Amino acid sequence: MDLNYESELLERAVTELSRLPGIGRKTALRLALHLLRQDERFAEDLGNSVINLRKGVIYCKQCHNISQTELCPICSDPTRDNTTVCVVENVKDVMSFENTRQYRGVYHVLGGIISPIDGVGPESLEINSLVQRVAEGSIKEVILALSATMEGDTTCFYLYKQLTPYGVKITQIARGVSVGNEIEYTDEVTLGRSLLSRTLFTDQFKY
Fold first, then answer.
1. C-alpha span between 65 and 58 (Å, rounded)
2. pLDDT for 118-165, tens place per residue?
3. Under a CB-based contact definition with an 8 Å cutoff, are residues 70 and 63 in contact?
4. If one looks up domain 69-206 in CATH, what number appears?
5. How many CB atoms lie within 10 A of CB 174?
6. Which of 93, 163, 184, 191 has the fewest Cβ atoms within 10 Å of its own Cβ atom?
7. Which helix (H) or strand (E) holds 156?
8. In CATH, which superfamily holds the domain spanning 8-56?
């Protein structure tokens, strides 16, 4: 059902807010009306923070994590193990693994997983840059840490085929992460144990 608005400005605000994921027009209206009830400074701070986020945040040229400099804090940290790369689907997964405090290597953010039904192929992801990093020869282990879904497994197998010629050790996080679950929604203890108990990717083909 369409909602009628008394103000064109309110209509525009609701339209823009409803473009956010998970926000319908009714929720957008509640948010807009909430903003109207707040001090004007609150709305200004909110707006400026979003603008600064969009203008100031870039993607790390090496791992594609979010950053404010060419290299993100993880890639530029001299105490991290640059010979071990954990491959994840998105930036939220980096945050999840970092919260476990059990991983001291670096990351590679693919920006998604292979999903033909959604029109996402290997060329849409940061796979070539991962292959380039491995081809340089300094990486000793690649950890495949993708969600335990059909699309995640398809992506892992594709990466395995692409990276095998370079002789790098390829492991996969243990299936303490339930099949069908996404990394983002896995608790930190389970995620940490899965990382520590990772297995060689080839082992899964022995069944």
1. 8
2. 999 999 999 999 999 999 999 999 999 998 888 998 999 999 999 999
3. no
4. 3.40.1360.10
5. 14
6. 184
7. helix 150-163
8. RecR Domain 1 (1.10.8.420)
